[in-house]
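Onboarding guide, step 5: your first structure request.
Type a short instruction followed by the sequence, for example:

Predict the 3D structure of this protein.
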Amino acid sequence: MKIGLLTSSYPRSPADPAGVFVAGMASWLSRGGAAVEVLAPQGVGASGPGEVPVRAVSYARRPALFYGAGAPDNLARSWRARAQVPAFMGALALETWRRSSCWTHLLSHWLLPCGVVAASGAGRALPHLAVAHSSDVHLLARLPLASALLHALARPRTRLLCTCAAIQDKLRPLCRTARAAALVDGAQVMRMGLDPAPPAEAARGRAVLFLGRLVPVKGVDLLLEAFKALAGQDPGVELWVAGDGPERQPLERRARELGVRTTFFGQVAGGQKADLLARAGVLALPSRVLSDGRTDAAPVVLLEAMAAGLPVVAARVGGNAELITHGEDGLLVEPSDPQALALALARALQEPGLARAGLRTASEHTWDRLAPELLSILEQI
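The system replies with structure tokens like these:
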């Protein structure tokens, strides 16, 4: 099997967290015997993890659409990013057409723009598996042509994979044709996986860890408020914020205003990321629902923390409740409720059984388990 993988996010270096789950999937498929070639926006190197060949798709002299805060926030903040969308789609379609004669299958991540390009004539009607995440579905739902784009995506040799059932539910109201409805109703639901690894040996501390992009949808400002309440009851606890983004300076300022003991690490990867996961006391994912309805869907960081033996507390948004069984392998709280978040964090720090159950949950979501199913889906298209 020769797979052309189209993606709008892919690691540009070993320390880059962008699209690490896409790289993990590509690497496993390659190790499993498939020949994988990745098309990703300019900035990527010639090979990714596992020496998967990568072709950079150039689309602008000063690219502003991808990376950094991520495409959704870049589009919201920058007119330059919005102006570059047609250029990227055109460049991706052209490169897909050029390379598709070398492939037997197409795999795309994010329905917009990659899924639509792969399903177009640029993909030469190859068997195509389109992976829907969250930001792409949210963007699709806001477009006047949403139903037409879904109909175009639903060509005979395309199947859909949703990273959580909540995404499939969000797509259903957008279907205006029987063909689009069949695509969505027949979608496979599968979270992105992890490379299996034993939890690191380290002494657990009492730090609350946030790991992710510093953008509004992640709700780190809510975490700061919750942590102030938590620290009032437990003065020995501290807050670690690992990640970067446009909200970093406002969040640092807010932490000072609240007088909370916070360490901002910036972007972390590799050994530093593993070290934080090994030494923290609990992972917090306080995602919020934005006013336009956007939220997290299936954050891989939850599985990364579980696999590291770290208990997790997450907002009940997107697919979090599909992964976490409240009170067994993690705790769920209602979004935008700092007081409930503080209580859940305090509980998680006192219940080691959550981490033990989380390890079992994470073991069910490794690429060793998931990728054979992925290959089977591709073979059946």
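Each response can be followed by summary notes, for example: The chain has a mean pLDDT of 91.
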